[in-house]
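During the reporting period, our protein records have gained a structure token line. One record among many is quoted in full directly below:
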Amino acid sequence: MKNNIIPAIRLTLVCLVFFCGVYTLAVWAVAQLAPGQGKGLTITENGKTHHVNVGQAFTSDNYFWSRPSAVDYDAAGSGGSNDGPTNPDHLAEVQARIDTFLVHHPGISKAEIPSDLVTASGSGLDPHISVQAAKVQLKRIARVRNISENTLEQLIEKQTEQPLLGFFGTERINVLKLNLDLDHLK
């Protein structure tokens, strides 16, 4: 028994020192090389700090709407709804989002609504929408803000992020950055 306990205690102490000390310091050191030094990317606007890589709730008619969140944009509880595509509650929630979208966007058919405007992402914190999701909201924002659609199209083009290395992922737009630029137009 002594032959097993002493090595187990030693291994426990080595693991404790390594994972609580060495590994933690190594992760911290690597984070210092990243933008934001491991604290995330932020934008400070009018004395308010916004986290760029965490979804924000934009539901007002004078802003581009965000992707819905299953966790109400709470980074402490990141996660999706875990409801399958045939779950009646999930289908009812998506239908309610579609109905709300159609009320605020007269003249748009259900088929024209991009899925990222009515379904939550896996993390519930996705800060991006597709270019199509931004363009489908143009008429509403142009009408509410009394801005030309051409100006908004230029803003969308300016804020469009290209796929990583030109082919990993799709074009996307950070909603926070887009809406902050929208506020700067006037």
